[in-house]
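May I ask you to review the protein record following this short note?
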Amino acid sequence: MTDTGPEPFPRHLLAPPDPAELPLPHPAAPDAGVRLLRGAVYAIPDGIRPLTVDLWLPENPENAGGPVPVVVFVHGGGWRTGLRDDLGPRFRPWRPGPFARLARAGFAVACPDYRLSGEAPHPAQADDLAACLAWLHTRAADLGLDTARTVLWGESAGGHLAALTALTHHTRADSATVTGCVTWYAPSDLPALAEDRPEGTYDAHDPGSFEALLLGGAPADRTGTARDASPVTHVSPQAPPFLILHGTDDALVPARQSVRLAEALRAAGHHPDLRLLTGGNHLWVGLSDEDVADCYVRTLDFARRCTSDQGVRAGEAGR
């Protein structure tokens, strides 16, 4: 009798579980009227850590009369660092915090991780946000979400990724529908940064810049990738409504970057709401507490308009 050794191991058992079938985290109650599900796994990329999302939900969604609209917040950090639930230093003292306030206002808020530039270059980040939108749609019934009413919102690098995703994530039956996008002090045209920044403050040949690390090489050497990673490149008549906020004194991302995005949207037949805040620097440094709160209120009001029945119909008519 010949010893043939053990049976080959069934390699399909090594495959990761489907995030759409994993149990959801146990909810916490960080503030009155709010449920928080922290760290739900929405994607398991090969060779990298699982990607997670925090979900801020109304405690009693049935009071809203049905599934609730969704705001997806994308954190900043130069595509290199950042925390998924951090809106920046001006909002850290808020009690309740900005996401809890949105949940109290009747929104679900999703705050996803995404692969940073030290883990993967463009387009991995936008791919991750697209995966998150698909996961939210798949889990909509479990979470009480109306993903046909989804607004993307990001600050700085997160605003860039929110805009890029909003402009490239075409309506699909198996994913959330983006009905609006908010950007705060976000880059929008990477090849134009050398022109928009003060002379001597930006080197497109520098392989160590935030932009170079995102692109996988110096922008001057990766011109095609830089264009592809620029929201302005992807503006079309199908773009959703945009609210674009930027400080006039931004020393990191020139306000001209937001002007370029608004101009591209207007050229495609849209009417973006562009607000340039006098004296505002990056992260809203230089603005009064009242002006910072107004940025938040404008964002909330915009999300309400974009997720109302009238707003959704208007967005569909423009696509």
The chain has a mean pLDDT of 95. The radius of gyration is 20 Å.
